[in-house]
Amino acid sequence: NSIIGDHKRWPHTIPYVLEDSLEMNAKGVILNAFERYRLKTCIDFKPWSGEANYISVFKGSGCWSSVGNIHAGKQELSIGTNCDRIATVQHEFLHALGFWHEQSRADRDDYVIIVWDRIQPGKEHNFNIYNDSVSDSLNVPYDYTSVMHYSKTAFQNGTESTIVTRISEFEDVIGQRMDFSDYDLLKLNQLYNCTSSLSFMDSCDFELENICGMIQSSGDSADWQRVSQVLSGPESDHSKMGQCKDSGFFMHFNTSILNEGATAMLESRLLYPKRGFQCLEFYLYNSGSGNDQLNIYTREYTTGQQGGVLTLQRQIKEVPIGSWQLHYVTLQVTKKFRVVFEGLRGPGTSSGGLSIDDINLSETRCPHHIWHIQNFTQILGGQDTSVYSPPFYSSKGYAFQIYMDLRSSTNVGIYFHLISGANDDQLQWPCPWQQATMTLLDQNPDIRQRMFNQRSITTDPTMTSDNGSYFWDRPSKVGVTDVFPNGTQFSRGIGYGTTVFITRERLKSREFIKGDDIYILLTVEDISHLNSTSAVPDPVPTLAVHNACSEVVCQNGGICVVQDGRAECKCPAGEDWWYMGKRCEKRGSTRDTVIIAVSSTVTVFAVMLIITLVSVYCTRRKYRKKARANTAAMTLENQHAF
Amino acid sequence: APEKFVKDIDGGIDQDIFDINQGLGLDLFEGDIKLEANGK
To answer: Distance between CA atoms of A77 and A90, rounded to whole angstroms?
Structure first.
């Protein structure tokens, strides 16, 4: 529920500063949280460049924010120790955008019971209600799934729930710290009059006959067909997994009736990029030949190219037979374009073909790796189970592995391990500032309605283990030996992660498990450039920025930015005050300006008055003299006359 | 994987925002809201 009053709103693009005090992992998590806002709302964030009001995110004590834009100039938002979780950052920024907690809305007693005698003495004020003259629930139903709702244990004095939901099924739903709920987004988008988002482009589950405006090319030898099942598979679509009779469609390229080399091209509607990078996501099923393949193209329209320029982006070959598989394709398109799916009939016999479903296109970064776990309910139901991912390589060349801990009866844990790899001799050790982001994918067909469950950890090269060795040192030095299923020996470093990644209850909710499959999306990226206080020997473009600013100290909370290769201080300012000068050393305010203006006016008036008086005095004196001289002359004449 | 081969950043406890703040001895409004200077 939102705070009432338009003056509490922020502009759609919010200026921010990530203060040096923030932990490195927190900085990366905050930037990831901003991406969630960009995908699902019209709220954007930009580094502060002198605007009157901005959000200063810093590592204070705890996680907290003010509610709404308080027009303080620099408005603080704290992401302290243990607050570096994406949903926590989303929660605090929702406060800053003008939202209170869900259970404080005026009608909350209709939905939850607050058990007052289970609350710690003196903490009752945390369960206040705000009436509808103070807060506005924006005509949206009470939301147990809100990221702004307390969990049932809030401020408890024992072990029993302080908040009891009137519908018992929601007792363990309240307090989710995964992602925005649908209603969170509805309210935020309503409050800020959002009609579109910055990074979402298209989503298609082929449920409607217009197939989302996609078109069949004319220059090919076959067409894709919209079907709800294929005899040789799949038996159902991916969106609904056959759960709804007479619905659940997907697009099928039937290779069983085509000769080798036949193609069918399915082109998306025209798309208009804003950011210049895109992520295409879709599910693919193969029931044809192992040699059939799917080619992904973009058709980009530049001036003078009527039909557009077709560019091959990815060839997907040897598609496994008999299951839906998730695929990501990174695109970098800057002009008007279409995405083209080309099915290509390969050699060999086929009794089916290729099928695609649940396409999402957004201007976001694709995950670097996908860990696909099949037959998951069996694994989840097993006793003392734990699973390791296959080995992966980060973009910098570090080898790693993910460990999923399923041994607890209530929670599922997840850990990141560095392992020995082919590039180890060329890499820097201990491994510096690689942020690993592990995401459990909610397989809702529409990316906008997904609630991801995500945690990130960052390798700190200075961190040590209990035995004094560097935690992120080379796995062959500090790790233990293990063997891959293929018999290859390797070393695994100590895992870093959480035992409480998600509860089993939540894991079984939404569409985390779909068709008995789950996907863990993995991204390991270098975030050294966020470490603005230390010079990292890494030739990243931002290094010059940090070097230029390394010798400049801005005073009074100013921040150093580089413009045209020169370091400059951007000084903080409020509505009626500001800092100025080369290093923000001087303070100004509207009061000072008024004083200066008034005193200047008075001074000018006084000087003018003095000049005027002197002029009048001199003029009068001059004419008096003249008059006296005339009088004397007349007297002499008279004397002569007598 | 025995516990000695992993380090848990959450110490085995799924701490919510208000737990973290309470643990630090903070008494913020509704657990995590910083009020404006004039108390509004």
So the answer is: 12
